[in-house]
Amino acid sequence: MSLFERQLEEPTVSFAALLTGDCPEIEGRSSVDLDGYVDEIFCSGFPGIRTLTDRALRAQLRGYVDRIIDRDFEESGYVVRNAGALRRWLTAYAAASSTSAAFERIRDAATSGEGDKPAKVTASAYRSILESMWILDPVPAWLPTKNHLQQLGHASKHQLADPALAVTLLGLDKPALLGLNPSPHEDPRDGTFLGAMFESLVTLSIRVLAQGAEARVSHLRTHRGEREIDLIVEGAGGRVLALEVKLASTVNDHDVRHLRWLRDQIGDDLADAAVITTGQHAYRRTDGIAVIPAALIGP
């Protein structure tokens, strides 16, 4: 279930209207704060377990992961010779959520401390089966149909089907994700993995909305990494909606610099641009870029 299907708020911003290019009015107020979004990460979007208490919910999610590894994988036609290795591999992917980390980096994370690394063909088999089971659901790189941009990266961005699976695999609870017990060198609200999980949650919702609008979802990253945009939604006519996902509740000029750059590059082919936040208020900035709390986006 996406955020709007969970009925956290009455949506005030239409996704379909953003895709039209008519720059619809952006307004509304959300009562959902960062704490509420973190709750949604842990509750998952699985309808049958969302109403369970904390302990029962955790048990169901752990059981689901166990079933994937112990039964579903082999039922998909691949014999698992080392269930522990498969779990470590899946956990490494969870840790790489919302990144385009290279194969070697994920392999090293999955085999930390082991001298004998698995062959790439073995790791590729893991990935292919998990994608066919819709456990891994990567976001492909954007390849523009009108060739406006040069030297774009081609690596997909890693995502699991639901961020609740990622935190379950990594053994995180809510205080750990929020960073309430940080090291002396860390800001308790500056955790990059918390931002990655919020992006996963938003990505899940945007993909559901895009499916209803017959649009495709990808991400943009230039070859050298100078420019990145979290989500590019391409409609049937080739116009795009560009979305940045920010954990912060406020948005400044620095946060929209890549959106403004894309607008300069592709002009009228940009239907709209927005920053999805954990804030309370939906509005348009003076530069035309929308700021939208994640809970306020609906069909």
- The main sheet orders its strands as 2-3-4-5-7-6
Q: How many beta strands in the DSSP annotation?
A: 8
Radius of gyration: 19 Å
Overall average pLDDT: 88
**Roughly what fraction of the amino acids lie in strands?**
5-15%
Distance from N terminus to C terminus (CA atoms, Å) equals 13 Å
SSE ordering: EHHHHHHHHHEEEHEEEE
Shape: globular
Q: What summary fits the major beta sheet?
A: 6 strands, mixed
Oligomer type? single chain
Task: Flag low-confidence runs.
Answer: 181-191
Structural class: alpha/beta
Percent of residues in helices comes to 25-40%
| Total of helices | 10
Could you give a short description of this structure?
With 299 residues, this protein is of the alpha/beta class. It is built from ten helices and eight strands.
What do these coordinates show?
The strands form 2 sheets. A 6-stranded mixed sheet has the order 2-3-4-5-7-6, sandwiched between helices. A two-stranded parallel sheet has the order 1-8. Helix 10 (257-266) links the parallel strand 4 (240-245) and strand 5 (270-277). The model is unreliable at 181-191 (pLDDT under 50). 35% of the residues are buried. The two termini are 13 Å apart. It is globular and about 55 Å long. The chain has helices spanning 15-20, 34-43, 54-75, 83-95, 103-110, 120-132, 163-169, 174-178, 192-212, 257-266, and strands at residues 13-14, 216-221, 228-234, 240-245, 270-277, 283-284, 290-293, 297-298. The chain has a domain at 4-47 and 137-298. The protein has 10 helices and 8 strands. Helix 2 packs across helix 9 and helix 3 crosses helix 7. With 299 residues, the chain is an alpha/beta fold.
